[in-house]
Automatic annotation (TrEMBL):
Lineage, top ranks: Bacteria, Bacillati, Bacillota, Clostridia, Peptostreptococcales
Name of this protein: SatD family (SatD)
Native species: Anaerovirgula multivorans
Any matching Pfam family: SatD
Length: 295
């Protein structure tokens, strides 16, 4: 999406004297220019404005303009894509692990709450088909983080995650009353791709993540790297998971240790034993490869 479509300069002119402004006020600004603007398109614009350092979230639904000199104007060739991400997952050995529907649904709710800071999720995770849950997202570098969050919330229960990339037949992501649509009621190649990716994992107990897109080179690279990631992550302890997720949030061993009430050296040791540096480097590289193919 070009900066012209985002109307960055117009946003600065409109909100320059506002200490803060709301999600609704920004939407009204766009609707004055584009009365037929779809909610799905608007959510994507908000995501791009945050990524480009134009607006900064102060709290949920409230934003502040960033310094114009620090704004990262988007490339002119960036456009609104027809391809989306669908993540379809299920629980491994749910019967053996005695996973109840109450436990399962509570985990899905917890996952959506944990993902509040993830900007690329369009429709949050919804449960269906027994022990399956599914979400729709824009193609973005946040994918590896979403995958890791899914595994963390369900730990120690292991899950399989099938990821599809492709078009959605109906782009109506909102119902007539503006409530979110249910991803399980939607159709399109992206859902078939996600299902195909998930099915490929059914007989591979040690592999938990699979991607299916129209780009064979991307599929091969992504899935190979995640096989290596799975070999490490499958052995993480609860303390390692806790330390890694906290470090990824605060970006500091000292701050992480302080929040857990342990020594910095102990916190660092938990991350080091989990080979976090390797995992993070792998996630970053996969995010880069994904955006090279689609963005």
């Amino acid at each position: 999406m070009a900066s012209k479509s985002l109307r960055i300069l117009e946003i600065y002119n409109c909100f320059k004297n506002y200490p803060t402004f709301t999600y609704r006020e920004l939407y009204d600004f766009y609707c004055l220019k584009e009365p037929q603007l779809k909610q799905s398109t608007y959510r994507w614009r908000v995501y791009e404005l945050k990524k480009a350092n134009v607006i900064k979230p102060i709290k949920r639904g409230v934003y502040q303009l960033m310094d114009k000199n620090n704004t990262m104007y988007l490339p002119s060739n960036m456009s609104y894509h027809d391809d989306y991400l669908v993540l379809t997952a299920d629980i491994i050995d749910s019967t053996k692990n005695k996973v109840t529907q109450e436990f399962f649904k509570n985990k899905v709710v917890k996952l959506n709450d944990y993902n509040r800071q993830i900007n690329s999720i369009i429709l949050p995770f919804a449960s269906s088909r027994g022990d399956e849950f599914q979400a729709i997202a824009y193609i973005s570098p946040e994918l590896p983080t979403i995958i890791r969050n899914m595994r963390y919330i369900f730990y120690p229960i292991k899950i399989r995650i099938g990821i599809g990339i492709g078009p959605i037949e109906s782009k109506s992501l909102l119902n007539s009353d503006n409530s979110p649509s249910d991803s399980w009621d939607m159709n399109g190649q992206v859902f078939l791709n996600a299902r195909s990716a998930l099915e490929k994992l059914k007989n591979k107990k040690n592999y938990c993540v699979s991607l299916h897109s129209s780009k064979d080179e991307l599929n091969k690279t992504f899935n190979l790297v995640y096989r290596l990631i799975d070999a490490i992550v499958n052995d993480w302890s609860d303390k390692q998971w806790e330390a890694i997720q906290l470090y990824d949030k605060v970006k500091s061993y000292e701050s992480g240790a302080e929040k857990l009430g342990i020594r910095k050296s102990s916190f660092h040791q938990r991350c080091s034993a989990a080979k976090w540096d390797i995992i993070k480097e792998s996630e970053t590289e996969l995010a880069h490869i994904l955006t090279q193919h689609y963005l």
